[in-house]
Every structure is written in C-alpha cells, then in structure tokens.
Amino acid sequence: MTRPVSVVIVSHGREAALKRCLTGVRQLLYPAFEVVVVADRHSLAMLQELPLALGIKTAPCDAENISLARNIGLGLAAGEVVAFVDDDAVPEPTWLTHLAAVFDDEEVAAAGGYVRGRNGISWQWRGAWVDGCGERHELPLDGDRPVVLHPKPERAIKTEGTNMAFRRDVIAEIGGFDPAFRFFLDETDVNLRLARAGHASALVPLAVVHHGFAESARRRADRVPRDLFEIGASLAAFLLRHCPAAERAPRQARFAEEQRGRLLRHMVAGRLEPRDVRRLLARLHAGFTGGGTRLPAPLPALPHAAAPFAPLPKRPALRPKLSCGRWWHRARLRRQAAHDAAAGHVSTAMIFSLTPAYAKVHFSPAGFWEHSGGQFGKSERSEPFFTLRRLRRKCDAEISRIRRERGLTGES
Question: Largest Cα–Cα distance of the chain, in whole Å?
Fold first, then answer.
C-alpha cells in the first residue's frame, strides 16, 4: 500500500548541507511524498533561489531548538506518516519505500532505519533499545527483514533522529517533541512516551541513510565538541522525566565520565588543549544545573495541518544509471554521472584504483553517488584486506552489495 508521507528536514546555518540533502531527497523512488523544510531565515532565503525549492513546504525557525523546529514541521506535515532526516544526511533512493512499508501493520507507530557513517560503508547506527536513564543497549537483528517490536514502558525501541518515521496521528496526540530537549535525547524522549502508551515500533534495516556529522555551533567538522551545555541540560531534563530519582545522580556521573573520556581522547590526538577540556566539562556541569530547571510539563496535542498534502511532482520512470571504471578515467566518469543526475536519473559512478584501499561511498553535491577505493580492497569492513580480482568482479560485488538500497535492477 502506498500511503502519503511527509519528509521533514530541520536545518540551521548549514545551507550547503541542506542543499545536498534536498538533492538526495528529490531522488527518492517513493511515489507519494511531500517535503517540509524548517530552517533559519537565511537558509530559507537561499532555498528560494534554487529550483530544488519548487513544491516544498517551508517554515522559519531561528531558534536553535530541534524539538521546536520538528514540531513546526509536524504542524505543516499532512501525510499519514511523517519521516525525519537531518540536513547533514542523504537517504538512499529506496529509503522511504522501505520505511513507509512497515506502517501497513496497523500496530506500528514508529519506525527507524539504519545509518551509515562518513565513509558511506561502516554502520554508525543499527538496532538498539533505551532505558529510562537514557542508556542505549544494542539490539542486533539477523538479516534485512523489518522487525516489529513491542517494548515495555521502561524499555523503548530507539530511533535515530536522522532516520525515523512516525504515524502522524499518534505523535501529534502525544504532543510531538518536548521543547525542553533543544538538542540531544529529543527523539529518545518520544520513544519512551510511545512505549509507555503501548505502541509498537519497527526497525527497518534496508531503510538506509548516510550521515555526515556536519559542522555546527555545537561541534567542529572533525566532530570535536564546541560546547556541551545543551547535552548536559538535555540529559538532566530527560532524567527528570524518565529516570527513578535514586538513579539520576549515578547516571549523571557516568555520563560526565563518558564525556571526559571522549574529550581526553581528542586531547591526546592533538585536537584539544587541556584548558579546552576543563572549559567543556565546566559547561557540561552547568548544563546539568540548567536542565534541572526544565521541569516536566503536559504537552498539548498538535493540530492537524492546515494546508493539504502537497506531493512533489512525480519523476519520469527513468531507470538508475551506473558506470564503473578506473581512477585515471575519474573526470569523464564524474561528468557522465553528473549529466545523468541532472537528467533525473539515480546515478552511480564506481571509480577504483589498482590498490587495496578501502571503499568509500559519497553523495556528490552534483547529485550522484560515487563509490571509490581500490580494486583489491574491501567494502564491508568484515571482508578480507586484499582480494585479487578483475575490475569487473569488483564492480559486480559492489553492485550486489548496494542493489536493494540504491534501487538497482541492472547496469547501464
């Protein structure tokens, strides 16, 4: 069953990342979806000058509060299902097809997919559940089939903010996202509230998003934190809402130690100085104090969208385009891939050197997927370091690996 889906993207001060994300979203193979962008006014002004903005719903939000912005997006979303993807992420073309399909099961209120990291290969996120103290526990799944789970009130199925979807009526009824979580644990709070209400959640391995961790006011491009106040404040607010009183202080102490360890690793690597570590830890503890004043409050139900569902125009039925060649032909392969993408195709260029270099996958701002690395190197990190093979066999193996995510039915 094809149901109407709203894709919500929240952005703040990352115009280039937002443009790249929208380029990928417009290549989704799902037949009935609208796009809602909630962003700061400068980013929205940039969007209005681009053909990418044609047909999308937009709303301003200058506050750096991801929960507030997501609620604004929910207010505009007229789809039966609302899916969220971050502005520094790009979904695979079949992402929405797989994610929306699980809502055919009327029990499912929420769904989450898998997330690949910066190299486009390694998994940044797969299945997990979370407890009332905000601690995550791995939930490994076998195979690629979606799994519907029925969590207990104190054990929610975790979804990641950059790859999640909700039945709109359900999330609107519980008040959407709590603005006390300006950044961090915002979707985890929703997960626990849904679990308490007895709703089922699904994990969908083939609903894949690539997440880049772009630079922001809170972190540098190398993922070194700039400030830890909001992380500390969100944790304190979360513990007030979900964690037994006797367990709050120990959990806060464990979290502070985890953050200290992370900062020390950055310091040893030369990315922070000792004074930076002291400053950031002081900000974390200030956040604990500040978050302790964000007391739980009832969240009113969100109203239905005033504007009707506004799906993007249907794409022509163009099949995916794929090319594979050697590194010294990269300029020609990239030109052809960009040309195919501009013509509306889902375009992939595989460019390999005569080395055992590890594979990488990147979505180009020009709108095509680029796979790079060595002809003899591994893609999935569990593979052997070196495999002697011809270029054709390397390309075939890579096509087979991503066929269902990319929507490939063959090679052209």
Answer: 63
Residues forming beta bridges with residue 82, ordered by sequence position: 6, 166
Query: Would you give per-residue pLDDT tens digits along the chain (412 residues)?
Result: 789 999 999 999 999 999 999 999 999 999 999 999 999 999 999 988 888 888 999 999 999 999 999 999 999 999 999 999 999 999 999 999 999 999 999 999 999 999 999 999 999 999 999 999 999 999 988 889 999 999 888 899 999 999 999 999 999 999 999 999 998 999 999 999 999 999 999 999 999 999 987 778 788 888 899 999 999 999 999 999 999 999 999 999 999 999 999 999 999 999 999 999 999 999 999 999 999 999 999 999 999 998 999 999 877 766 789 999 999 999 999 999 999 999 989 999 999 999 999 999 999 999 999 999 999 999 988 899 999 999 999 999 999 999 999 998 644 4
Secondary structure, 3-state, 292-339: CCCCCCCCCCCCCCCCCCCCCCCCCCCCCEEEEEEHHHHHHHHHHHHH
Burial class (CB in 10 A: 0-12, 13-18, 19+), 188: buried
Phi, psi torsion values for 63, nearest 5 degrees: -70, 140
In the chain, what are the domains? 5-211 (3.90.550.10), 229-291 (no CATH), 321-406 (no CATH)
Helix (H) or strand (E) holding 350: strand 347-353
Kindly report the number of other CB atoms within 10 A of residue 398's CB atom.
20
Using CA atoms, how far apart are residues 80 and 94, in angstroms rounded to an integer? 19
Residue 201 structure tokens: 């959640």
Give the SS3 label for residue 412.
coil
How far apart CA 25 and CA 14 sit, in angstroms, is 16
Q: Which residue bears the tokens 């937009």? A: 58
Which residues lie below 8 Å from residue 395, measured CB to CB, with a gap of 6+? 324, 350, 352
pTM of the predicted protein model:
0.94
How far is it, in rounded angstroms, from Cα 254 to Cα 392? 50
Order the strands of the 368-374 sheet from edge to edge: 321-326, 347-353, 368-374, 360-363
Tokens describing residue 192: 């626990």
Residue among 143, 118, 115 at smallest CA distance from 128: 115
Strand, coil or helix: 204: strand
